[in-house]
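To the team - flavin-adenine dinucleotide complex, inputs and output below.
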Amino acid sequence: MAVAVDLDIRLIGHTAFTAPEDIDWDPQAPDGSALAEFAGRACYETFDKPNPHTATNAAYIRHILDVGHLAVLEHASATMYLRGVSRSCSHEIMRHRMFSFSQLSQRYVPAEEARVVLPAAIAADEQLKALFLRAADVSHDVYGEILQGLAGHTEAQSHAALRLKQARQAARAVLPNATETRFVMTGNFRSWRHFIAMRAAEHADAEIRAVAVECLRLLQEISPEVFADFSISQLRDGTQMATSPYVSDS
Ligand SMILES: Cc1cc2nc3c(=O)[nH]c(=O)nc-3n(C[C@H](O)[C@H](O)[C@H](O)COP(=O)(O)OP(=O)(O)OC[C@H]3O[C@@H](n4cnc5c(N)ncnc54)[C@H](O)[C@@H]3O)c2cc1C
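Output:
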């Protein structure tokens, strides 16, 4: 029986920062936003923070966003582990070329059960949900049958692991777009801002929008200075979106 899985995103890594001992730097928050400020100040050696208007980290980062000096945000990065994402959504996510990805291999790891991501619009309707899960079951059963059939064809191949890999890489073609995938995604803060600006927007696909909003929440926890300008709001259909006044040049 097909299993509908939920989105699960964990922050598994982010930048730490240590200022050199010979530079007088308040170690208020040894994190990515402090590093971005340090990098910006390194351009003019204004480590002593001469401008009172940008003396706090939050004010400095706001200034960076105002003037579009976004390259300094590239020094800090964050890594997420995403589970409960459909293969179709992961395809959209991986169009963002500035990130690094490590994705679960369908060639090495067999689809032992039909784990699928239900589109929200279908999950809300019991009849459509049952129909969707039935289709997932059928493709998973066919996947199993193709695997068995191919096991016979590839017996000449002496290496057992290779034989299985060849069978899986062919059989996976029948699995649906909704099949769950898992991956690690690393990007710098500028790339995360760009990803959120594009994918948490109202017109993005509902699933990738949910991913972008959840990533934003996690990023706001570790670096409110860099991500607080994005605000999350609810759409009429109950899903969420996020936008920022800086979105056009994020
Ligand atoms: C609502 C929506 C609908 C979409 N529909 C489609 C669709 O129908 N078909 C489709 O194919 N795609 C579609 N996309 C995907 C879209 O075209 C982009 O591929 C994707 O959003 C990645 O964003 P990006 O191009 O800004 O690049 P990213 O890879 O996120 O790169 C970030 C930025 O780096 C710079 N950059 C990166 N690579 C280069 C480069 N080679 N040269 C110059 N500058 C570069 C650009 O400034 C870019 O904006 C859609 C996206 C959205 C948000």
